[in-house]
C-alpha cells in the first residue's frame, strides 16, 4: 500500500445506534468480491461505474463524504503508480423505502434528524445506504436496516 493514502474507516452516513437496529445488513463482503472481480478483469468497469444520473445528483448535492476512497479509482491509481487525489469524491446517500411511507418511499434522507423523524412517525421501512463516486460513477449498496416504530426498543 502506498504511503500518504488516507486511512480506511467504515463510517456510513447516518447509521443509527446498533443496539436499536433490526435487520441490519452490511454489504462489505459483496463489495470486496466485486472489486476483486473488477481487478481481475472478470467484470468490466462499465458494469460497476454506471451510477444513475439521479444518484450522482443526490451524491453531489446531499451526499455525505465517505471516510474512504473509491475502490475503483484506488485500483486505477495503484495500477498507474500515481499518488491518490486528495479530494473526497466518494459520497454516501441514504434512501428510504416502505409501503408505510407512502409518497416518501424512494426519497433521499438528508439528515440523521430526518431519518429519526421518519422512524418515529412510521411503523416500518427500510433505509439503504449507497456509496457513489463523483469521478468514475462507481456505486454500491453499503448497508441496509429496518427502522420504524415496529422495530423500536
User: Low-confidence spans: pLDDT under 50, at least 5 residues?
Assistant: 1-13
Give the helix proportion (percent range). Answer: 25-40%
H/E element order: EHHHEHEEHEE
Tell me, rounded to a whole number, the average pLDDT.
85
Name the overall outline.
elongated
Tally of structural domains: 1
How much of the sequence lies in strands comes to: 15-25%
**Gyration radius from CA atoms, angstroms:** 17 Å
Biggest beta sheet attributes:
6 strands, antiparallel
In terms of structural class, how would the helical and strand content be classed? alpha+beta
How many strand units? 6
Number of helices: 5
What's the end-to-end separation, in Å?
A: 43 Å
Structural features, described:
The chain is α+β, with helices and mostly antiparallel strands and 153 residues long. It has one domain (24-151). It is 31% helix and 24% strand. It contains 5 helices and 6 strands, in the order E-H-H-H-E-H-E-E-H-E-E. Strands 1, 2, 3, 4, 5 and 6 form a 6-stranded antiparallel β-sheet that branches. Strand 5 (125-133) and strand 6 (139-147) form a beta hairpin.
Amino acid at each position: 500500500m502506498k504511503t500518504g493514502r488516507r486511512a480506511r474507516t467504515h463510517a456510513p452516513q447516518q447509521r443509527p445506534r446498533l443496539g436499536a437496529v433490526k435487520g441490519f445488513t452490511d454489504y462489505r463482503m459483496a463489495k470486496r468480491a466485486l472489486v476483486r472481480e473488477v481487478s481481475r478483469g472478470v467484470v468490466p468497469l462499465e458494469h460497476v461505474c454506471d451510477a444513475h444520473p439521479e444518484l450522482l445528483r443526490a451524491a453531489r448535492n446531499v451526499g455525505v463524504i465517505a471516510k474512504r476512497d473509491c475502490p475503483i479509482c484506488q485500483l486505477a491509481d495503484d495500477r498507474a503508480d500515481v499518488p491518490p487525489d486528495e479530494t473526497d469524491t466518494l459520497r454516501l446517500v441514504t434512501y428510504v423505502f416502505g409501503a408505510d411511507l407512502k409518497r416518501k418511499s424512494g426519497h433521499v434522507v438528508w439528515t440523521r434528524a430526518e431519518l429519526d423523524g421518519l422512524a418515529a412517525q412510521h411503523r416500518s421501512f427500510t433505509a439503504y445506504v449507497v456509496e457513489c463516486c463523483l469521478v468514475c460513477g462507481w456505486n454500491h449498496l453499503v448497508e441496509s436496516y429496518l427502522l420504524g416504530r415496529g422495530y423500536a426498543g
